[in-house]
Structures are given as structure tokens and as C-alpha cells.
Amino acid sequence: MTRCTPRALVFGLALAVGSLVFAHTSRAEMVHFIVQDMEDESATWLPVEVVIHRDQDLERGLVFVLDNPTARTHVFEAPGLFEQVAEKQGEVIVKPLRVTVAPEDTIQVRVNLAPLERMPEPCVEEAHYQFFCPLHQADSVRAGTIRVVP
Question: 47-80 pLDDT, tens per residue?
Fold first, then answer.
């Protein structure tokens, strides 16, 4: 019988938990966004349009990967969409999707699927959500769009 040192036990536990978190995230559909500073001191998140297919892309969950390669802090906000955050007690909190991304940082955000899975009104075939950086948004022209289609 071999004995594990406390250090090996902690390392093994961290590796196991990390692989579970990675596996849970890697099964999700990932949508990448990158923020870009503009000459007029405003900012824009790219791509400017994302199409999510409700029947295909939402099957395994949805994660937004927010990349900020700039020297300024930016915010990714998408009114009408929500993020899921796991609390220490295992409880999941749902809150409006507004995430601060520090300079040269990348953040993964699990999106709550409930609003995306609902069918829009019968006469509308797709849903639209805008996203932008509220800290550096000069006008609504630079807002991007997420289209959710059947």
C-alpha cells in the first residue's frame, strides 16, 4: 500500500477538479469575442455579428470567451442575456451578462440558456441581442449583434 503525501494529495485533487471543470466547459459551444480599441478612444467587440443556431449550438451549453488584448479595462455587456455563476456552496446564480475584462486578460463566461431556448413571438423567426462595451461605446453603431435562429 502506498501513501500519498499531503502535497501529492492536494495536487491530485486539484488536477481532478481542474479536469472536471475543463471537461464541463469543453463540451459547451464556445463563442470567442475580442475587444479592439478604436482611434476615437471608443472600443468595439469583434466579431460584430454572431449567429447561434438554437437547435444545434445550445445542445451542450454555451460559453463566451472574452479576450482583451488591450491596455485598458473593458466591459462586455449584452442586455437580455444572462450568465451563470457557480457559488462556493454549489448554488448557481443567474445574473445579467455584464463582465469586466482586465487588460491582457481572457475570461470564460457560461451563458444561461433559458432566454435563448425560448421561441420568439410566432411572427418572428429569430431573436436579436446587442453587445457592446458600455465604458467606451461612442454610439450604437459599434454595438454588435447576436442572432439566435431556429
Answer: 999 999 887 788 888 999 999 999 999 999 999 9
pTM (two decimals): 0.75
For residues 122 and 59, the model is more confident at: 59
* Strand-pair partners of 107: 66
Beta-sheet pairing, 144-149 with 49-53: parallel
How far is 145 from 118, CA to CA, in rounded Å? 18
Calculate the dihedral angle through the C-alpha atoms of 63, 69, 74, 75, rounding to the nearest 10 degrees: -10
Rounded-to-integer distance, Cα 85 and Cα 88, Å: 10
CA angle 27, 32, 33 (to 5 degrees): 155
Helix (H) or strand (E) holding 111: strand 105-111
Residue 64 C-alpha cell reads as 463566451
Q: Quick one: 25 exposed, middle or buried, by C-beta within 10 A (0-12, 13-18, 19+)?
A: middle
